[in-house]
Amino acid sequence: MSLQLSVHPEVFDPSVCAREMRRACQNFQISGFDLLFFTIVCDGHWIVYVVNLLHKEFNMFDSLDDGKLDVAARNLFINFKRIATKESDFTVDLFSFKTDWPLLDYPQQATHFDYGLFSTMYLEIFDGQRMKDFKKQNMLDVWKTIASKPVFHPSNKVFPADVHKAIIAA
After folding, report:
1. Residue 87: domain span
2. pTM for this one?
3. Per-block mean pLDDT, blocks of 10 residues, the chain (170 long)
4. 91 phi and psi, to 5 degrees?
5. Where in the numbering of this chain does the Ubiquitin-like protease family profile domain appear (predicted)?
């Protein structure tokens, strides 16, 4: 849905996202979401966009803050407003939202390969008002967790100690 919403408004076809929007509205009514997250990946670059219902604003988190996807972000929010107004179950007035990105302080990457991890962290720790800080060590822990999941997965029939021995022997 994010990629469909990020196209230029003149070529956006609301019917393409209608089913997903209906499903989101149903989930919104059931659980009372305050934040709607969208991620867009373009040329390996990840950006997180937030429809922040809690503070009536749109937020964008770009781990490199290079402005490459600003146009996609603006398109996403324009098109989201358009499709939301057509969905009767979505009762939030998005036209009252702040149109400029609020200046939020958030961690950014120093590398050119951590886009996905930073985006995941943004999704997990943004509370609608501020982004909790996370350090380089947190990123190392995330990498370790991701790397260990296949080894310790219940479907893995190989004993982890054997894997460890094989890695050390290599």
Report:
1. 2-134
2. 0.72
3. 89 88 71 78 81 87 77 88 84 81 74 78 82 73 78 76 73
4. -105, 5
5. 1-126
